[in-house]
Amino acid sequence: MNIVYLASRYSRADEMRGVRDVLTLAYGLTVTSRWIDHHGGKYAASFTSNQLNTDPDYCGQIALVDWEDLQTADTVISFTGEGGKGGRHVEFGMAVALGKRLFVIGPREHVFHTLPEVSHYPDWSHFLISLQRAGDLKPVLS
Known about the structure:
globular, 6 helices, 45% helix, 5-stranded parallel sheet, 142 residues, alpha/beta, Rossmann fold
């Protein structure tokens, strides 16, 4: 695990920036998820149905950025929970198809979260502790 894509509800972007900071500063990983910075600070919320339908070309450009970020990563960490429109589920499906290393943090939300290649953790702290013990996450020495 060197390059990570974070998948989550768009409304959890602040939380995902914190996750990114831990992964990059404490473990030296690269996080490709530009969406967590609201695509350059332009979008504080996910696109509405109206935006998706009135400007699909522009929205499609944003989707391509996310797709590129996901393709670049070797690992996808999906944060689950109630709500959202489902983009994170599409990202998870693309990651399965691309053969990425897969982690789900939070409750399983659909049958594909039970695939044998998916590692599941109930929360962020269990994820960190487990991967540190396994040697998959090694703190950067200061």
